[in-house]
Each structure stands twice: as C-alpha cells, then as structure tokens.
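Summary for the steering committee. One of the milestones for this cycle was to obtain a three-dimensional model of the protein with beta-L-fucopyranose bound, which we needed before selecting residues for the alanine scan. The sequence and ligand used are listed below.
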Amino acid sequence: MTHNFKAFLLLSVLLGMVACTETPVEAPAPFGALPTERQLAWQEMEFYAFVHFTTTTFRDVEWGYGDADPDEFQPSRYDPAQWVEVMKAAGMKGVILTAKHHDGFCLWPTKETDYCISNSSWRDGKGDVVGDLSREAKKAGLKFGVYLSPWDRHDLRYSTPAYIDYYRAQLRELLTQYGPIFEVWEDGANGGDGYYGGRCEQRHISGNYYDWENTNALIYELQPNAIVRGGGGLDARWCGNESGWMPEPNWAVHDVEAQDYWNPAEVDVSIRPGWFYHEKEDGDVKSLEHLMKIYYESIGRGANLILNIPPNKEGRIHPTDSTRLVEFGQALKREFSRPLSASDIKRVEASNERGGARRFAAAKVLDGQKDTYWATDDSVRQASITLTFRQPQKLYTLSLREPIQLGQRLSRYVVEGQQTDGQWTQIAEGTTIGPQRLQRLPQTELQAVRLWVESPFACPLLREVQFYLIPE
Ligand code: FUL
C-alpha cells in the first residue's frame, strides 16, 4: 500500500465519521396537554349517529315523566338494520343509543330494575334494543356507544346514595354484555320534577351527588378505550349548544393558559327539532344545505359531530329522514370528490423549515401521512407556506390539519391567493385548526396560495394542506 493511498483511506474514514456524527435535526418537542391514545382514535371518528328511542317516542313528548307503562313500548315494524343502513349511507362511523333516557325506561333486559323492556308485552318480553343495535352496528363496521341518563325520573331511589349503586350496576351490564363501547354519554340535564316511584315530586341533587370520579373509574376498568363524555366525563366536552355549530376559537385543551388536559368538543344536534320522533315534525327535517353547514361548522372546526336520527313509533327511521341522510352521504362524497393532487403543485416553499431538514420540509403537508408534518425552528411563532400550482386552479375548499399528537398550537391563519396577473389578495382567515379545519374559498382562478399561521406558544406544525376543486 502506498503512503498516499493510506492517507487517502484515513481521510475517508475520518470524513465518514464526521458525516455519521453530524447532529440530526431534532423533532419539535410536544407542546402542552396532549390527547390520550383513546382520544386520538376518537378524533378520527368525526361523524356518528345518536339514537333517541324509548317509551317517550310513543307518548310523543321529549322528556318522559317516568310514569309510562312498559307496555307502551310497541314498535310495530322495528328494524334496527334499517337504522344502520341509513347511518352507513350517510358516512357515519358509529352510533350511540339512549339505553336509558331521563324517563328511566331501560331498552335492555336489565336485572337491576323492573322498569325495562322485559316487562313490555312487545316480543313477549324478550326484546333487547341495545343488543340488536350493537350487533347490527358491528356487522356494518360501525362503533357502538351508550347514553345512560344520570337523571332518572322513574326510580324511587333517585337522589339517594342507593341510586348511585344502581347507576353503576347498570353501567356494568352495558359495558360487559355488548362488546366494545367507544363512548359513554353522561348527560348533565336535570329538570327536578318526576314520577320517582309514584311520589311525583321535585328532586334536586347537590354538586357531587353522582361522584363521577368513581363512576368513571369503573367505566375505564370495564372499557379502557371508551371516551367518557361530560356530565362528569373529561374525555370530551359539550360544544355549548344543540344547534350544530362549534364556537370559535376551538381549543381542544380545557384551559389553554394552564395547558391542563385534552378535552375536545363534540357537537350534538338532531336532524329534526326534537331529540325524539314526533309526527308533527315530519316537515321539519333539516335540509341538505343545513346539514352541510353543520358539517363545516362542526367537523370543519375541529369537533366531532353526533347527529341524532330518531326512530318513529314503528321503530324505523322515517322515509324523509332516511332519504335526506342518503342524499347527505352522497353530497359529502361529492363535496370532497376532487382533491387537488400533489402533482398539480409545482412548488411548496416555507418561510422557515426546521434546521433545513427534509424531514420537516414544507412539502410534508402534501404527503397524506398522519405522522409527518412541516415544522419550523423553535424560535419561530409566525410562518408562511406558499404552494404554487402548475396551472391556475379554481379552488373550492381547503382542509388544514395539525399533528395534534404533538399538541394544539395554531391560533390564527390567513389565506392569500395569487391571481393570474400576479396580484396577491387575502381570500380567507380563521382562528384555530386542531384536528381539522375546513374552509370554503372564493372560486377565482389562482396560480398560488400562501397560508400564514400564528402559533403563540411553540413553533408551528402543520400536517396537511389539501385543496378540493369544485365538484363536477
Ligand atoms: C339533553 C337531554 O335533556 C335531551 O333530551 C337530549 O338527550 C340531549 C342529547 O341532551 O341534555
């Protein structure tokens, strides 16, 4: 070996070592409160059904008083497979049933009370709506959840400690006999008056009566993947209205300053004015436009949407509702049928890319992956990303997503469009993004779009920028 060749080898080894030891760019640290595994899975559910059904349906009221005879529960053409078919067609991913509403009547053959379906002559006392719906849902690939009203206007024990044992025993039945449960709905409503074992009086409860901490511990013990939704549950929160819209900004964190815990919102709304079926509301089923508006203002604002579809006295979803839901499923498919493909985008640039690393480059917003994202250096609080199209495009809708597994960060965004004459103008703006933000855009020809984001607490991260074109 010549001297020169040895020197060359040594140099190569040294250079190789330098290359190997070059410090890789560190991933951004997670910020603040983070979603749990079950919350992350739940955020992907996005859209599911609510089913309000009990003796109340047959009395044509909203809040059953708790005095209906079990025999009044007589759905004549009962068909939970039809409910599920409609849910599937609408694009829903799950269903939550009122196993017991405020009237106290239980839709499954519980051993804990006589006030249940086993004491109706319907199906010779062999009915089990919870069992039927959970089975149909499973067959169709829908997740199943239960609503169990804490306020019970029938039970004599209500407002005494014995009722809490009763409520927990009911939960134990529901959470052990019907397979995986994705969500337990604890409702906060209590109007005071009720039947209460024939006493027909007002009953008020004090602050910690339900002792949710221990009740929820039981839920997690029996169903570790279930989301417990307030009343007493902290996994998900009420959006604050029953009209189908998420107020802005929508921070999934309970206290943004304190960053205490992840507490994402769920928007609950009925396809009709009431939660239960009433014939007089047959003409008031929400229009397609209204449902689409709800979709944009709930899921499109980072919340989950639970849409109530109440079975009628026959035990079927009324034809007006089922037709509307099928149409809605088709409209949703159409709405997002023309995603602008990454190959239609000539260039993606950002004002800053973390450490100049490819792993955090602006282009990561286009790769369709959950775990990859554009990131900036830690010191950055405002940044922009510019997407230049190969040809001018008439855009329709924009979808933005943060990688929420690293916390929610963005407080505001502004969208600018570059017209074909080179002029830039602002075309949209908004506040928080979170798991998803949908934004309709003006339908003008644009050759580029720039998105500005503000991230007051930590460096901005963005998982997705997806444009949709005007549906055909
Ligand atoms: C409320 C209840 O009082 C309504 O009847 C309905 O169940 C709705 C979803 O929640 O608190």
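Key point for the committee: The chain has nine helices and 19 strands.
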